[in-house]
Amino acid sequence: MPSAPIARLRKKDIVWLARHYCKHRHTYLVHYNCYLTENPLGRKVGFFDIEASHLKANFGLLLCYCIKPADKGKILHRTVTQAELRDRQCLDREVVKQCIADLQTFDSIVTHYGKRFDIPFLRSRALFHKLDFPAYGEIFHEDTYFMCRSRLCISSNRLETACQHVLGKSNKTRIDPGRWIIALQGDEKALAYILDHCKRDVRDLEGLYNALVGFTAHTESSI
To answer: Which domain holds residue 6?
Structure first.
């Protein structure tokens, strides 16, 4: 059971946690995991995914991102533009900058394999562009890939496979390498397809997370 991160909390939040009780009749300060699950203070949680032109950030660019607020239909997103791609001083700088700004409106994010790809890729692009990136402990992070790996026994821990097994379906579209290649030229149809692919991913991600969260303890790690 994770303990409350007192060093990162404001005094009034510590007092609130000490005076309010979870379903087990313990204070949230003692049962901090219950606080995370029951979310009484309205922590803002977002389901996050990126699409990039390459698996390594020193060879690729951020093409788009999506963040779906929990239990809400509207998805925050931005796609790189043709004009930005043609400007060597810009490239994906603006989409990285906006992505970071949108992330900072959330207390916690959920990804699928984001600990190994989405977050390190975004951080790498931010450092390349000399942009400020959230410091350690600023935004919390959970990853459904590791939930699948530790709590399920299926042939693959990929998002699509996990959703098909747990939810009975997946809304993911096919990854067409040709579209990702011409997207680097600023092709609007290719970029629209990739954005739609990313939106479907975060919707699937939210469904998978909600199905698995009851089987695992919240592990408070930083992006």
So the answer is: 1-42
